[in-house]
Amino acid sequence: MGSLRIFVNDGWVEPEAGLGAVRYGEPALDFIRGELGLTGTKEGCREGDCGACAVLVGEFAEAPEGGKSAGEPRYRALPSCLLALGDLAGKHLITIEGLSASSPDGLTPVMRAFLEENASQCGFCSPGFVIALSAWLAGTARPDLAGAMTAVDGNLCRCTGYGAIRRAAERLAVEFGTLPEDAAERLGFLVEKAVLPRSVLAFLEKGRAEEVTAAQSRGGIADAAIGGGTDWFVRNPYPEADFKPLLLRSTPGMAGIATIAGKAEISGGRREGAEWLRVGAAVTVTDFFASKLVREALPGIEKFESQFASSLIRNLATIGGNVANASPVGDITSMLMGLGAVLELGEIPSGQNPALHSEPRFLAIEDFFVGYKKTALKRNEILLAVLIPADAGIFFSFEKIAKREKLDIAAVNTAMSFRVEGGRIAGVRISAGGVAAIPVLLEKAAALFEGAPVDRDDPKTLAAFARAVSSAAREEVSPISDVRGSAAYRKRMTGRLVLAHFIRLFEDAGIAKELFP
């Protein structure tokens, strides 16, 4: 691995190597507070749940879909406790101290809104809120209160109360109601309004070359492959000083989204040549749901985004990481299994770029999991991409049950998809997580709905199918009891969530009244 250069606030910094190796795998939080002495970034939960450690990170997007947006600059809020230091190579790290440099009196418009709306009390959480709302303004041309509330859905406050914070956000939405559509122009405008520091302009001018250099300098034998690190750093909060990860999110070619024609080896029973979405393993959850290609292939899928973690986590967590982590209750995994995804796996020779792999193999996602937290990955092999059928007219639903609406692990999650061909249901897939040691397909339940006639003017028949499929799903699962729910509860919830699929997918047929008169 080469040297590590990070543009911190208003100047380039090169962290000293430890034990003869650049510390790519050190949590950024420890470097920010311990070495830089920038203690405005707080250490709270160290699990990405509180937002106190949030920092603003500027980079040039890989442009998953190419075209006009190629190399578009963006600034996003990330939890530094789960952010590998190496993922900052060639990027712009702005802490709360760096934001303060935006204005002569040390107060940005976001900070001033917090001050004048009495939105800060003890102040421990305030830096994270300010960072999150600054990123919100940097990332949208039409700021509104709903967007602001989504931006801070990963930030917790224990003493002020959220009413004042909401008022501060509403004030900002009014003050900055219309911003430039072009990302670079918007960032420049926010610099002039002292929302962002002038160092942003310096990064926009020269940062692109630094990112390319940083990407090209990577290499060497890695101890582990990490997507976003949102699970890895929770399990390994204090990695060894010489830990050397392969950081997929910062690896060129791993974060693209494209439409491809299917080959025989990835057909999954579909006709050869049918289109697939190829989603690079390092595509973040945020970028996945924002993708125009994804939204066109899977209309309405973006409405499920808020069920996955928080904005801070979605900005960092990757699609491939959620799958390779092999959690029996991974939300993205359950969704992809319901969609009939196929995984592209590749062997990576030590020290070579994963994007340059040869002879990948393809595996249906349901065959990837071989035991609790165990996968079919071979030695020296990683998940390169996820392939999703791009079927026109697919109907899809995702549901989960958890103790909290936001930022919580599901007790049970499930997805359902199908097509309508010749007036009948075809290609039914129902997945479920949290009901076995691995994510599973509910094949018996799905078979009951396969080939069923579709008459949206006959809610009674649809409701009868819904009850039958729900009952079969409940009997098909074999969950265990743990802190998130008893086995009986999970079985019952599996059935209820299947009913929720039918209600969502046949809402216009009035099926809800038939199921729950």
Structural commentary:
By secondary structure, the protein is an alpha+beta fold. The chain is built from 18 helices and 18 strands. The chain has three domains: 6-244, Ubiquitin-like (UB roll) (Roll), CATH 3.10.20.30; 254-392, Uridine Diphospho-n-acetylenolpyruvylglucosamine Reductase, domain 3 (2-Layer Sandwich); 395-517, 2-Layer Sandwich (Enolase-like, domain 1). The strands form five sheets. It has a five-stranded mixed β-sheet with strand order 2-1-5-3-4.
Short précis:
The protein has helices at residues 28-35, 96-100, 109-116, 126-138, 145-151, 162-175, 183-192, 199-216, 232-235, 285-290, 292-297, 311-314, 319-324, 331-338, 443-449, 459-476, 487-505, 511-515, and strands at 6-8, 11-13, 54-60, 73-79, 92-94, 224-226, 245-247, 257-261, 275-280, 342-347, 361-364, 369-371, 374-375, 381-389, 395-401, 412-421, 424-433, 440-441.
Which keywords apply here?
517 residues; alpha+beta; Ubiquitin-like (UB roll); Uridine Diphospho-n-acetylenolpyruvylglucosamine Reductase, domain 3; Enolase-like, domain 1; 3 domains; five-stranded antiparallel beta sheet
